[in-house]
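Mods, move this if it's the wrong board.
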Amino acid sequence: SSQVMLKSGTNILYWRTTGILMGSKAIKPVLVKNITIEGVAYTSECFPCKPGTFSNKPGSFNCQVCPRNTYSEKGAKECIKCEEHSQFSEEGSSECLERPPCTTKDYFQIHTPCDEEGKTQIMYKWIEPKICREDLTDAIRLPPSGEKKDCPPCNPGFYNNGSSSCHPCPPGTFSDGTKECRPCPAGMEPALGFEYKWWNVLPGNMKTSCFNVGNSKCDGMNGWEVAGDHIQSGAGGSDNDYLILNLHIPGFKPPTSMTGAMGSELGRITFVFETLCSADCVLYFMVDINRKSTNVVESWGGTKEKQAYTHIIFKNATFTFTWAFQRTNQGQDNRRFINDMVKIYSITATNAVDGVASSCRACALGSEQSGSSCVPCPPGHYIEKETNQCKECPPDTYLSIHQVYGKEACIPCGPGSRSTQDHSVCYSDCSFHHEKENQSLHYDFSNLSSVGSLMNGPSFTSKGTKYFHFFNISLCGHEGKKMALCTNNITDFTVKEMVAGSDDYTNLVGAYVCQSTIIPSESKGFRAALSSQSIILADTFLGVTVETTLQNIYIKEEMFPVSPSQIPDVHFFYKSSTTTTSCVNGRSTAVKMRCNPTKPGAGVISVPSKCPAGTCDGCTFYFLWESAEACPLCTEHDFHEIEGACKRGFQETLYVWNEPKWCIKGISLPEKKLSTCETVDFWLKVGAGVGAFTAVLLVALTCYFWKKNQKLEYKYSKLVMTANSKECELPAADSCAIMEGEDNEEEVVYSNKQSLLGKLKSLATK
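Not the wrong board. Structure tokens:
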């Protein structure tokens, strides 16, 4: 309860909640049972009491409500009784109603505790207050009570030991409920917990109650009734009562052999139920941690066929689990939905601190000196079947959180991931390697390992309230630690204060990917923005790969635009172990990392255009993260060389990146290289000299041969003339003497060795 001091004059009181209607179903966050205002109200006139109320004293502050089976008219001083046998009325009625004939909706059955003979009796009772008549035509009478039936057996972990009641087995022993409690054999330890599947009496750690916001009809009633093989909702006082069932567990702890394991799951609670409804009934499942606040975990509306639901426990604390059933949220005077009910067939809690054992499980044995008692295995160790000794899991495997017996308890990590030193979880070190066309691509996402955020929207509710979807993504975490945080009220506390405070602060969730609903301050007139409905989208890392499929998570090609480069996208896959009504296998998340050199630093995160909320089915979420930091590391294949001109006997070689540049970091560009070379000017001079010499030589030879040719023509012409003049004479012998008129132009050679010019002349003479 809360109390506020009012000032004199006009006071305006208002109550405001932060819950908003996101769909067709809304969970009521606040229940106000009574508002009392004390003090003197000043007024200039008096008003008559309205029908159904009365005032029997002058100067009364307010009018009193007429009790049940009475009525009053306007301005009444007292209430008038209804005719007891044929009429009835609810509290605050203005008239009496005729009592209807009794039907099957007006009574219910219960089971009595087992007697010494192991029998239980079925008892029938009228729903109170009884408003029907048994003496009318077509009225149904109350069935006879007292029929005896065999009592159901004790629940697993309990035994009756020949008595009429079941008692828990002593520590270190076990029973299936039908046999005596026996100690576990050597090398085995009890598997502690609770398994309630027979409902003859309400278990000692459970209680039931009834609550109604508007009246006190059901105060003190049992909200639930045991019924042999199930427990079902009771009759209550009104159709809009909350019928409450509580289960209290002081704590959870793993088995001895798993004490050293660092897995996130500490225990789990599973229940099997069904609802049979003709109206808008709702079953709520709520959890309270350390008796601080009760939060709705899941709810089911309308008729639901028989199904199971599991809630996972992540830390050791005092838990109270609550099931609340409401037939309708509309207050009505008559009972129309009394036959609407919920049945819970079994409730199972594992690893409960004060639990009992229905079976034994293998455990690790200590050394011979310590005997055959069970000992905890070190973190990351499983129990070897042959020797019952602890043995460490192989590299890059993690230890199952459900069992540690046998090597199969070590589960291989997904692609691109490694296990922590204690083999508790698998994680990504933000590096990835891929072979493509004989080329190795190395990625380093460490600069993106810090939390990335995306504010998506705005969206609007049916009443026009504006809200945003806010996502936090921790790509790699920190060696398995989930770094993305979402809060349910970001304006009241800073994240730092929350982390430094209590570990069971229920408004703070940590994950690889989480989502909050943000209501801006201007939307509803709040002083600051509100954050609510924080949920975990991913708390387990599955692997990283260039493939678009991993463990039944698919990324369709048409979901995101096609990448303009040939660099493959890298995909991070996650899942959440928490199941919901629509996501029976839990939620999953895929993050597509794409190389985009135009978006440096943290880059840009987006969602599919066809699914603006990040998901199309509410179970699988997709994100595209574009950044230059998502490009592979640079290698020698990402640059080429350019050779410069040869200047003064030296040549420069430069190295430049290929354009466009689809890499980052990695190797650096090599320094420019300077090498010796033969310059163009030198060879040009050599060529010019050789050409000039060749030209002079050709001119000289041409002149020489031309002159020699002239002499030969002269000699030939003289020979022809001589031959013609002495045609009949014998030819004279050739003379080597110089004829008259000829010049002696032959050179005298004084050297035995001829020069080059001499050799040419001799050749020409011949």
